[in-house]
């Protein structure tokens, strides 16, 4: 199972935005849509062995589960519509319990620390995709791990602190978009047969 | 200069489509938008050393020139709007001459064979990103080359024939989207310092 966690710093916390203005009114939800596409979409297929967690403003988590995921198309607008549906039912969330919005997509009221606690309980290790990390191609990866990425903004100091006991990986000499990092990560794992 | 050529088999040949329906009414223009983003967009910057040619149904070519390109944002919708503007002025095209629609974006009436003739005249070699190719990581690349990709459809036999005197590269064991291939190609070139 490949796990990607994207920390979204400005993303909308309600469904009250226009799909015509995801970069603006939805707080760069377009970035998250592209991350979802990069995580799951193959040419004419879905990667089933993938789990994606979108952490919105450290308050909400939208989880997408490849094994059961339905209705996902590669374009940004239709993915945005799926995320909007998840945001629409958040009032049904009690405590940190998840509610399923469409098949394979779940929302819960949870912050990064709580998510990390869940990972720790399952012995899932932290791998931060970070410009200051060691070179991906020269690094052996933990067997069970989650890859953490930041959206269009840098990891903030409190996030860096929470992730500080993990591995840091650098993917190359250029500063890349989060979705491009996911594509590179998948390819490396594909080539390693992991 | 890194050159990417994307062969689009169904993409709209007119501007008469809705930006709300790029996967449908615009003939998978969303695929081309993602290819443009992958070609040019870095985190908070544009790759200036990139040239993209979108070949629409073997009839029109939209060329995007990184050196002068303006108004490009990473989201699909705004990129779609730029391509739509290019399609809108195609009636001004005479012969195979280009017309500029917005800064750094040009349209012309040209087919793949004519584009290849231009490349040949400039000694630009053909590299086809193709599942049946040799492994990218183990292959030395020509100094001056153009990378050819197909959109959501396979290269058709006439395209394979036109590109047959080039190199074929395989990027990994999975069948990937064209934009993901561009991201991988950029990363490999970045890591090689090319």
Layout of helices and strands, plus pairs?
The structure is a homodimer of 194-residue chains.
Chain A: E1 2-8, H1 29-40, E2 41-42, E3 45-46, E4 50-56, E5 60-65, H2 76-88, E6 99-102, E7 105-109, H3 112-121, E8 125-135, E9 145-150, H4 157-162, E10 167-170, H5 178-192
Parallel strand pairs in A: 1-4, 1-9, 8-9, 8-10
Antiparallel strand pairs in A: 2-3, 4-5, 5-7, 6-7
Helix pairs in contact in A: 1-2, 1-5
Question: Your description of this structure?
Answer:
Two copies of one chain form a homodimer. Chain A is α/β, with parallel strands linked by helices and 194 residues long. In chain A, 29% of the residues lie in helices and 28% in strands. The first copy, chain A, has five helices and ten strands, in the order E-H-E-E-E-E-H-E-E-H-E-E-H-E-H. In chain A, the strands form two sheets. An eight-stranded mixed β-sheet of chain A has the order 6-7-5-4-1-9-8-10. In chain A, strands 2-3 form a two-stranded antiparallel ribbon. In chain A, strand 2 and strand 3 form a beta hairpin. The mean pLDDT of chain A is 97. Chains A and B meet through helix 1, strand 2, helix 2 and helix 5 of A and helix 1, strand 2, helix 2 and helix 5 of B.
Quick structural gist:
The structure is a homodimer of 194-residue chains. Chain A is an alpha/beta fold.
